């Protein structure tokens, strides 16, 4: 199903019940613990990071203001249980915590995809926070907010996007130093332009580390098609 945009007046002043969105669409979750489930994606506009492998640069700018009530109505229209709030960087809009809470109150299984550069402590604990740890190869390793690791629970997930063998070794060191796998699920993904899925899979097997290998299922199915 194609992405939709709201029928709202352009560019109103931001208020406590509005968020700026790039798109809302129904697809299959392509990553993390809920991969394969039909999921509504709520993509917020804006991100303070510029990772060199980013595949959603179209969400950096533009977007439309949506009332949170309108977002909830659009999510409900699709009739599925899973909702993923993503970006951009959703936590760059502080009012997103209210949306997350209301989605949980409505009975959805909710995940949040976040860069790991912004404090996650205000996010409703019912939300599965999928927190990136930026590797050196991302170009944004200095933006990691390491205090987020103390906030992790078994409901959360941590993701490393691996751009090289050096990134893999760095990620293994971080994994061991902070004992992240004792706190939550850990996911390793290849940056496809730089590391092949087979290479990363072989490294994980050889290292015998407690992580889950993942690929982007939606890319395998639909490539770069918008709204999928």
UniProtKB/TrEMBL annotation:
It comes from the Bacteria. Its EC number is 4.3.99.3. Pathway: Purine metabolism; 7-cyano-7-deazaguanine biosynthesis. Residues 34-224 form the Radical SAM core domain. GO terms for molecular function: lyase activity. It holds the Pfam family Radical_SAM. [4Fe-4S] cluster binds at residues 47, 51, 54. Mg(2+) binds at residue 56. It is an enzyme of class 4 (lyase). S-adenosyl-L-methionine binds at residues 53-55, 88. Binds 1 [4Fe-4S] cluster. The cluster is coordinated with 3 cysteines and an exchangeable S-adenosyl-L-methionine. Substrate binds at residues 28-30, 43, 86. Keywords: 4Fe-4S, Iron, Iron-sulfur, Lyase, Magnesium, Metal-binding, Queuosine biosynthesis, S-adenosyl-L-methionine. Signal peptide: none annotated. InterPro entries: 7-CO-7-deazaguanine_synth-like, Aldolase_TIM, rSAM, rSAM_QueE_gams, rSAM_sf. It catalyses: 6-carboxy-5,6,7,8-tetrahydropterin + H(+) = 7-carboxy-7-carbaguanine + NH4(+). PROSITE patterns: RADICAL_SAM. The keyword Metal-binding applies. PANTHER family: 7-CARBOXY-7-DEAZAGUANINE SYNTHASE. Belongs to the radical SAM superfamily. 7-carboxy-7-deazaguanine synthase family. Catalyzes the complex heterocyclic radical-mediated conversion of 6-carboxy-5,6,7,8-tetrahydropterin (CPH4) to 7-carboxy-7-deazaguanine (CDG), a step common to the biosynthetic pathways of all 7-deazapurine-containing compounds. Homodimer. This is 7-carboxy-7-deazaguanine synthase. It comes from Noviluteimonas lactosilytica. The gene is queE.
């Amino acid at each position: 199903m194609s992405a939709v945009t709201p029928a709202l007046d352009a560019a109103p002043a931001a208020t406590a019940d509005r968020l700026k969105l790039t798109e809302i669409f129904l697809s299959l979750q392509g990553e993390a613990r809920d991969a394969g489930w039909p999921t509504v994606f709520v993509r917020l506009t804006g991100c303070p990071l510029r990772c060199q492998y980013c595949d959603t640069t179209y969400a950096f700018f533009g977007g439309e203001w949506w009332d949170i009530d309108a977002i909830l109505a659009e999510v409900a229209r699709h009739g599925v249980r899973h909702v993923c709030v993503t970006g951009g960087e959703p936590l760059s809009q502080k009012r997103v915590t209210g949306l997350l809470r209301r989605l949980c109150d409505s009975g959805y299984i909710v995940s949040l995809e976040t860069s790991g550069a912004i404090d996650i402590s205000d996010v409703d604990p019912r939300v599965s926070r999928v927190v990136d740890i930026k590797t050196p190869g991302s170009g944004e390793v200095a933006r990691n907010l390491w205090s987020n690791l103390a906030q992790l629970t078994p409901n959360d997930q941590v993701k490393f996007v691996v751009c090289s063998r050096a990134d893999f070794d760095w990620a293994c060191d971080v994994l061991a130093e902070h004992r992240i796998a004792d706190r939550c699920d850990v996911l390793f993904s290849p940056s496809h332009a730089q590391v092949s899925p087979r290479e990363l899979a072989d490294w994980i097997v050889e290292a015998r580390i407690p992580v889950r290998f993942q690929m982007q299922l939606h890319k395998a199915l639909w490539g770069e098609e918008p709204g999928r």
